[in-house]
Each structure stands twice: as structure tokens, then as C-alpha cells.
Design brief:
The protein is built from 2 helices and 11 strands. By secondary structure, the chain is mainly beta. The protein has one domain. The N and C termini lie far apart (65 Å). Keywords: Lipoprotein.
Length: 175
């Protein structure tokens, strides 16, 4: 009888365990990198999961205009603050499995940005430049289905010299 009581208490304890007792790490919160046009994206910003979120017209946006101008934007709105991670490549057809250096913004450039916009209209823009860089890699591109997948990372600085680290970026988008 005593063993039955111990077994009952043990089983009750197991059933009461909530899956949230073991929360996911920041990296585990990011979407899995797929190549199906799943319309998913995410990254780590200073070690924290950054995912499309909030009441915005486009929490997640991707375009690849004329197969030359690529941009992916992940937007998050919490209260009255909007944060955005943007990676872009201008005036170049992107090739699968080629690594592109993210540097400064320009007419024929590839760059990364992180921006914070607040309700008081103050903003803080962090950008890659010739010293503070990153990488973009296209892992899949299906022209017929208009889907593109890839990875990215970058460091960016604001006009005060403060740095933000964007890591483990991934996207699988229709455009």
C-alpha cells in the first residue's frame, strides 16, 4: 500500500509538470531554417530572440525586385516602440551558397540595419559600415515559386558608436 501511495504521488507530480518549466533558449525560439517559402524569419539581437510581432501592416516583409534588389525586414512592435532588423542587397543578382559581405549603405551595396523607433519620434539607427560588417548567404532560391531562403549576421553601430550584435539570422520567404 505504501508503494502504491508513492507511485501515485510520483505520477501526480509528473502530470503537474508544465512544459514551460523548461523554457526555450533564445536560439530555440527562432524558426527552423527551411526552404519552402514558409514566410518565417528571426534572429538574435544582443542574444535575445527577435521575431516578427505586433500590430503592424507588415511585421515581416521580403522583396526581390527585378532579381536585383533584395530586402528582408523583421519588425516588432511592443507598446509604442517599433524595432526593425533589415538586410538588403542592391543592384546584384544573388547566387545560392555565395556569401555576401554586409557593409555600408550605397547604390550598389549590401548592408544590415537595426532601428528602434519610439513614440516620442526619437529613433536610434544602427548600421553596418566599412569597419563594422556582417554576412548574408542565400541557401535556396526558387525563381518559379518566387521563394528565397538564407542566413545572415551582422554588427552595427549608431552615431554614438554604440554597437548591436545581430546573430543567427534566418529567413524563408515568398517575395
Amino acid at each position: 500500500m505504501k508503494n502504491l501511495l508513492i507511485l501515485f504521488v510520483f505520477l501526480t507530480f509528473l502530470n503537474s509538470c508544465d512544459k514551460d518549466d523548461n523554457p526555450k533558449t533564445a536560439l530555440e525560439q527562432l524558426p527552423v531554417l527551411t526552404s519552402t517559402g514558409a514566410n518565417t524569419a528571426g534572429c538574435l539581437v544582443n542574444g535575445e530572440a527577435f521575431l516578427p510581432k505586433g500590430n503592424l501592416p507588415a511585421p515581416l516583409f521580403c522583396q526581390y525586385t527585378d532579381q536585383k534588389h533584395f530586402s528582408i525586414a523583421i519588425n516588432e512592435k511592443i507598446s509604442n516602440t517599433i524595432r526593425t532588423v533589415n538586410v538588403a542587397s542592391l543592384n546584384e543578382t544573388l547566387e545560392v551558397n555565395k556569401v555576401y559581405q554586409l557593409k555600408e549603405y550605397g547604390e550598389n551595396s549590401k548592408f544590415g540595419e537595426y532601428a528602434v523607433f519610439s513614440e516620442d519620434f526619437s529613433d536610434n539607427l544602427y548600421q553596418t559600415n566599412s569597419i563594422v560588417k556582417g554576412e548574408l548567404k542565400i541557401t535556396n532560391h526558387d525563381y518559379k515559386k518566387a521563394t528565397i531562403s538564407g542566413t545572415f549576421w551582422f554588427d552595427a553601430v549608431n552615431d554614438k558608436g554604440e554597437k548591436v550584435e545581430v546573430r543567427e539570422g534566418r529567413f524563408d520567404m515568398e517575395y
